[in-house]
Amino acid sequence: MIVVDTIGELHAFLAEARAEGKSVGLVPTMGALHEGHASLVKRSVEDNGVTVVSVFVNPTQFNDKGDLERYPRTLDADCRLLEALGASCVFAPSVEEVYPEPDTRVFDFAPLDKVMEGIYRPGHFNGVAQIVSKLFTYVEPHRAYFGEKDFQQLAIIREMVRQLGLSLEIVGCPIVREDDGLALSSRNALLTPEQRHTALAISRTLFASVEYAKDHSLAETKQMVEQAIADTEGLELEYYEIVDGHTLQPVSSWDDTDYIVGCITVYCGKVRLIDNIKYK
Asked: 37, 142, 216, 246: which is the annotated catalytic residue?
């Protein structure tokens, strides 16, 4: 495995791989890697001759400067994990390498980016689109891998690929959870042991809501989740929406669509955690 920090070095590595007829997989990350990321890398290694993993904390997708500064950075440990997983190349550029000048592109993914994260993190998905489209240009992968924990992000990246007419496959991979149910996230490293225990109420509530939904209305299920989080000391609900999994628009009845997902964002102290659950 090689580690490169310039676009030129990345292109040189990929030119050699393509000359050998190898397919290329890309796993975009912001580092602080865990088993959720590992599952994406393993899938890419299985599917492709070459796997590139980007490690870059992208400033344009943070609307909270404090959140950007707090985001964990563990490049050395990340590289050790990626080598053990069989990754071919780590691309870990500087901000100056990726943004030699400001990226002024503005994307419109309406209605996908006008709900949930789009409301509470203005500009976030535009920043995601900026960096992911840049990575797609640098790497020109055959396939790119993203986790379903970031459910809205995955839908928006698929829409971006459609809008830009890119010829690559977007592969969504299932949420990876701890044995106790907590969705794996780089932000979990910022939780104290007590907060981590408190955060278990998020997944526990979502799992319980699936059973509850079997004999309750959608509105009752939404209220049950919201109340359970409100009743948990140390958690603050930002939003819980039950949406059409295709359009991300809120639904009012279990019969509205054949694909229904509950998406939640909760603050545990200052740590912002997201999760989701499929109802049908």
From this structure: 37
